Amino acid sequence: LRLTGAVGLHHTIYPMFWYTALGGTAEVAGKTVVGAQNIFFAQLADPNHHGLFTYGTRFFAGRFATMMFGLPGAALAMYLCLPKKNRKKDGGLYLSGGLTSFLTGITEPIEYTFLFVAPWLYVIHAFLDGVSFYVADIMNIRIGNSFSGGLIDYLLFGVLQGKDKTNWPNVLIMGVIWFFLYFFVFTLCIKKFHVNIPGMQETDDSSADAIMNNGPKTGDKLYDESMDIITALGGMDNIQTVSAGATRLRVALKDNSKVNEGVFKKLGAPGVLKVGGGIQAILGGKADIYSQEINDIMTHPNMQLAPKTEDTNKNKSETDTKHVAQTVDLASPVNGKFTDLSEVHDDVFSQKMMGEGFAVQPTDGEIYSPVNGTIMSIFKT
Question: How far apart are CA 145 and CA 156, in angstroms?
C-alpha cells in the first residue's frame, strides 16, 4: 500500500503506524517484533539471521527502481524534450533533480517539474511506482531502508548485506527496464500532449531581472539572493513567517498576488506553489539556508552588509564584508537569579550553539521584552 501525490507533504508517505499495521509481527532472535521497519532492523542486527530478509522489506524494495532509475529516466526525457536553445539555461534543473533522486531518493525536485503543470502525468508516475513494488516482490528483492530508496540506502542495506539476504543484483536488472519505461512514457506524453514543463516555452523574465539586477549588492551571494527573495515576496511588510522543509521554502504572506515567481525560477526552483495564505518554493537543500538568512535579515532589519571593497592596505585585517550595526541597551527580561549559561540543562544553550548569553532563574513568573520594539513575527506554536 502506498500513498502518493499528497501536495504539501513529503514526496512519498509511509506513516510509521502503517508499517506497524501492514508489517504485522515476526519473531526475531527469540523476540516478537512489531512493524515492517522494526522487523527489518531487528533482522539486520541479528548475527544469526540467514537467508533473505523477510516480510517487512516488501514495503521498501519497490522504491529503488523508481527513485534510482525511473525518475532519472523521466528527467532525461524532459531534458531532451526542451527546445535546444533552452537546454543550456534550464537543463541543470533536470540534471540536478535526476541526480538527487538517484543518490538520495529525494524525488520532490524532479516530481514538482511536472506535478502542477500535468497532474495526470503524476498519476501515471504513481501507477508505475506502484507496479514497481509488485515487480520487486515477484523478483524477491528484499532491501530495506532507513530514509528513502536512493543509491546510498541501496549500497548500505542492499549490496553490503550480501546477495543471499537481499537479492540486490535484481534491482539493477529491474532498474534498466524502469529507466527506459519512464523515458519512453514521459517522452511520448510530453510531446503528444505538449506538457508545459519548465523551459519548454520562452518566458518574460524582465521583471525578475529588474529585481535581481537593480537592487543593491554586497557581494555576499547568500545575503543578496535572500534580499532578492524578500523583494520577490512583496517586501518585508508582506511576509508573516518563513520556514523550510527538506527541499521547500515555506512562506506565509499577507497577499499572494505580490509574488514574483520568476525570481525563484532564476534561483533554480522548478516550481512555486501558491497555497492559502502563502507560497512554497522548491529550492532543494538551499531552502533551509535561505530560510535562516531571511529570518535573520527580518529579525535585524537595520543591520545591512556593506558592499565588498578591495583592501589595499596589507596591514589591515581582511574583511570582505562587515556588519554596520546599532548598539542598544538590553534590560533584564525577568526578575530572578543570574545563572551562568553553562549550567542550563539544554545542550543547545549550555554549549553556546546559539552564541554567548546568560540565564535567569525566574522568581515571579513575569517575562518582559528586553527592548522597546515591534513584534515582526512569532511562531504559531
Answer: 8
109 residue type, one letter:
P
**Band of pLDDT at residue 316, cut at 50, 70 and 90:** very low
Burial of 170 (0-12, 13-18, 19+ CB in 10 A): buried
Contact 198, 90 (CB under 8 A): yes
Tell me how far CA of residue 361 lies from CA of 339, 354, 364, 366, in angstroms. Answer: 7, 19, 10, 11
Distance CA 264, CA 20 (A): 40
Q: In this predicted model, what pLDDT tens digit does every residue of 320-346 receive, in sequence order?
A: 455 566 676 767 788 888 888 888 887
Q: Distance from CA of residue 353 to its chain's centroid? A: 23
Q: Are 125 and 140 in contact (CB under 8 A)?
A: no
Distance CA 51, CA 268 (A): 46
Closest alpha carbon to 170 in 192, 145, 138: 138
* DSSP at 339: E
Distance CA 344, CA 340 (A): 7
Cα–chain center distance at 167: 31
Q: Name the band, by pLDDT with cuts 50, 70 and 90, for residue 305.
A: low
Residue entry with cell 530572578: 336
User: Of 63, 76, 65, 62, nearest to 183 (Cα)?
Assistant: 76
Residue 135 CA to residue 173 CA, distance in Å, equals: 11
The CA angle 185-187-191, to the nearest 5 degrees, is 120
Nearest to 232 by CA among 199, 200, 257, 198: 257
Nearest to 40 by CA among 140, 145, 148: 145
